[in-house]
């Protein structure tokens, strides 16, 4: 049986590690246990590969004002496009871009130098003129006095080279393009970066080098750590999203509606793209499936693609937009947290999946303007130096499930959050520690649960909503093959805001196991409304406590190394403790409702274990313990309901 520190000793160890974390030390321990009084109120950040957790810094901006709509009139009648301009990078690779400039009523381009918004895209700038993908040229900006430059990143569109998204080599191209932009007669030397999804991530990465021309960033649904966000969530590969995304980009890299323009250059670019398939697409896809060490485990390759690792280099005002069910749900608030202490940063999280968040579906709402209006206010403030008060907008604006409206706060995580531990015992979820001898719950280990669930719609970026099935929005169907644990009907409203940690004790008749933990609002009519979920492969359960998030002396967001060295045997019949990171949410569980936690073995097609791990876990029976000796539990961030704005 695995030897593990007794749960009640762990908070003391955690408090000591917080002191050590400031000195850069790192230890692998398992989280859990009860509260440490000496650390009451202490909150840390979540660490990264390069930095341990630290005391959560105060945001640089006050965010004291409320929302205001910033609607400016068009100052130009039209736009003009200069397409397929070729720049040669320092390694000889041809990078293709287009420039869109404002024009007067006669179609003549503005002659005075203007600030420029730059978007680096893998989606083929010539295609995005017909189908808006990931931050295409935005005429709203151009007609209000901005140039907009869209750049095919290397290996995509009309640019040469092989595609390796967000790679260190791709990032070397960004400042070279910016240098070219600011030398043009139509540029006044001031640049902002903007984008959606992949182009939001490039917007952040382009700013991390501190290029003096870049004055502001507006990323909509960026990732922060693509490895932990979607590549291998909890050690399980995103088989629904990644292959589809990579196939779309690869197709767009070869099918080009502007093939007739400079056909020789187009043919050379396509040849480079096809030859480059062996550099990223094929080996990385197979590497995830086969658990190849250089792909399936975390390493410097994935670190290079993570804005969270270089956030200290982003020193300009940044406004981040995310969604509570976005594919990058985990990282959007983490990006804000990584920036807030050293630059002006704002965070808006809506009730959105990926495609909805890209456009801010439903805005304006509750005083929150449309995304174009917010972005224009941001760029006018920091690119044109117009004193419009953008820096005083609320620091954090989140949709709150159950409250069914946007609410603002001064920071994320919520400054009034307190850690509360609830124990899983005999189908119930309660603050009382479990009794001795409680029987474990039993779950069959099968890999395909969750086919129709909120998680499935989340990883499908919301597309499957066109088939209106109730199971896209509730956990009931998925929970038929999971063990469920419910609170008693709440006697008062419960407000949860932030990340959640589940500490699950299991044994299995197989060699390995996967866990999914779902968090639901169980309504009086029996509907289990989805709020969030987390995944974890049991053999990758090791935690680096010095990089984990702590609140009130309790670990509330574990940092798993996901390296080959961190693999720990599970073994048949052994009792092991598996800390599971449940992605952050914000929800008001109403009086009379119940909070439900369910634990199962899979969350398909959101993710699936690599084949070697999957084979080790198939046909097993997993037991979930909840007794005095092995107390499975969850730590939730509870905020006083009084912190919420009253519903009008």
UniProtKB/TrEMBL annotation:
Low complexity bias spans: 55-66
Swiss-Prot/TrEMBL keywords: Hydrolase, Signal
KW Hydrolase (keyword) present: yes
Annotated Xaa-Pro dipeptidyl-peptidase C-terminal domain residues: 376-635
Annotated stretches, region: Disordered: 45-66
InterPro entries membership: AB_hydrolase_fold, CocE/Ser_esterase, Galactose-bd-like_sf, Xaa-Pro-like_dom, Xaa-Pro_dipept_C, Xaa-Pro_dipeptidyl-ppase/CocE
Signal sequence range: 1-21
One MF term in the entry's GO annotations: dipeptidyl-peptidase activity
SUPFAM superfamilies xrefs: alpha/beta-Hydrolases, Galactose-binding domain-like
One Pfam assignment: PepX_C
NCBIfam families per UniProt: CocE_NonD
Protein name as annotated: Peptidase S15
Source organism of this protein record: Solimonas fluminis
